[in-house]
Amino acid sequence: MLPFFYRAKALAFLSFVLAGFFFLGQRGDMNNTDFFMKQAHRAAEIQMDTFIAAGLETYLNHLSSHLESFAVDADLLPFFRGNTAHEPQVRERWKQFLRLHAHVPYVYFANYEGKLFFEPNADLPEGYDARRRPWFRHALLNPGRVTWTPPYTEIPTGKKVLSAVMALQDPDSGQNLGVLSMDLGIEELESLLARIPLPENSFLGILASDGQLVASSHPEKMKALLAHPSSLLAIMSGETNVFHENPETQLLITTRLLPQPHWRIIQGLPQSAWQLPHAPNRKIAFFLMVTTLGLYLFLRFLELRSIHKQVLDFENHINVLRTEAPPLPSPSPAPLFPLADLCTRMAEDCRRGDEKIRILQSRLDTLIQKAPMGIFRSSPQGRFSEVNPAMAQILEYDSPEDLIHNMHDIERELYLDQQDRKVLQNRLLQGHILDFPTRFRKKNGTIGHACITAYPEYGPDGRIFSIWGFFTDISRQYQLEGQLRRMALTDRLTELPNRRSFMDLLVREAGRFCRYGAPFTLLVLNVDQFRDINADYGHITGDKILCALAEAFTSVLRSCDTLARIDGDTFAIHLAETPLDEGLSVALRIQEHIHGLHWTEPPDLKITLSIGATAPHETLRCPDLLLQEAEGLMYAVKKKGGKGMLPLPAKSRTFYS
């Protein structure tokens, strides 16, 4: 029978039976707890009813009856109607009442003009108006009935009081006469609650209809109770509940609602007053479960000990066979733990794999930290979360932490063109980005050029969680490219556009002429006898003459015109929006201006020009042919001796400006 108890199925069945017994025991304990809780609730309600009927309700009804007797007293009615001659008689009646009821500090009457008469008499603040006091307004809500106000501060003494108030009406005319009231100090009401016999650590409290604390025998306990919104809601709705004052103490809360005044009486009894029985059934079930489990483990231990002894005997038998018999195949391992060797090898492989991952991670971190390009990780909202030192160095920040802390909006603070950030994000939705050019702003405000390669990282919801990228500073490359571009398109001596640049301009302007019919004139100018000038005065002087001629040409031209040096001593001019006849006038003016120049070095030098002019028309639109025609006209002038132009200008020309 012993193997039955330590088999897995038997253990599961036994555990199920014991768990069911434990559950039934727990249900029985819960039923017992509910029964004793109901008994405790009933006892607390009886005690509450006794306190209300014998103590508080009798006390309040006694004061209310006196106030009603004052209201219907025929001797006091003339005073209430406004006859002040009866004031001494009224005060005498009030004094007698106050001597018999020392707990009432004041009896007073206020008419509808706001004037107050009270006993004992005291000085009131200047401009005092009784109609503004809470007790006056409260009485008007229920005229002809005695009602109790919530707690308020009384003006003469500054103490917290309650007032029994009654709005008076003339029994003959029905006219409103005023408000009659008497005060009851909060201290007196709390003293009354403290005199009621209660168990130790119990308390009584009174709440107004608006949830305000009126009085309590233990105010600190009431404040702790009302500090919990759920407890206050349960109390105001009249529910009976258990309030945990602290982890060790529980209070049984009982409430009652008085019809007049509209107060809610609260009683709190400690756990000692309603001690619940323990849970014996659950403990017995738990003890049986622990005992059975211990018995199972003991029997299992005996079984394993027996198996271990059998294994040792088997190994000894194998050793005897190896020494006294021919060699035998290696015995299979003991069946106790057939996967032990496999688990060991797998654990070793996992350890080696983790070690390789740590090494690779270390190498990757070193590579990122020492990479010459910027590497970053940013959020879709525009904040850097990780950057390497090269990224901080490119943007001229002190450290990666300084960059992450001080750059709050990448789109506004990093990108010079904020649209680049939006374009980059839109392209990331379609996949990764390679070599995205952009301009960026450094910490000191300088502008740089960069190339960005970025890859999105998606979250579990399929949205972009973060962006990984490489930030390469190509500002130096961009600067060198700009210098090479200027060198390729600019004449080094005169800093004018060269032939390549001028031909690009002709291509664009010829296209505008073909599309829109925009006219222009092309002038080709050559310096006459310039080789003789170089031979007589030297190449340095020749270079200076070419620079001076460039400045002289520029002074005559408009800002929209283009001057270029297309050969050694040959210049070309593009006159925008200028027909050929007006262009010839400009050429004539340039020629006259240059011929009239006086050279200081050498002083006897005279410069003349040979000019060829042309303009596009229906049969001549090609830029190369336009330049070829203008050059041909210029060379035709030189063959005739120079100092002229072709075609010749007409006699009447429009003014060129």
Key features of this structure:
single chain; 657 residues; alpha+beta; Beta-Lactamase; 5 domains; six-stranded antiparallel sheet; five-stranded antiparallel sheet; 20 helices; 20% strand; elongated; disordered C terminus
Explain what the structure shows.
- The structure is a single chain.
- By secondary structure, this protein is an alpha+beta fold.
- The protein folds into 5 domains: 73-189, 2-Layer Sandwich (Beta-Lactamase); 198-274, PAS domain (Beta-Lactamase, 2-Layer Sandwich); 343-372; 373-480, PAS domain (Beta-Lactamase, 2-Layer Sandwich); 490-646, Alpha-Beta Plaits, CATH 3.30.70.
- It is built from 20 helices and 21 strands.
- The strands form 4 sheets. Strands 1, 2, 3, 4, 5 and 6 form a 6-stranded antiparallel beta sheet that branches. A 5-stranded antiparallel beta sheet has the order 8-7-11-10-9. Strands 13-12-16-15-14 form a 5-stranded antiparallel beta sheet, sandwiched between helices.
- A hairpin with a 6-residue loop joins strand 10 (249-257) and strand 11 (264-270).
- The longest helix is centred in the N-terminal third of the chain and has 65 residues, at 8-72.
- The radius of gyration is 55 Å and the shape is elongated.
- It starts with a helix and ends in an 11-residue tail after the last strand.
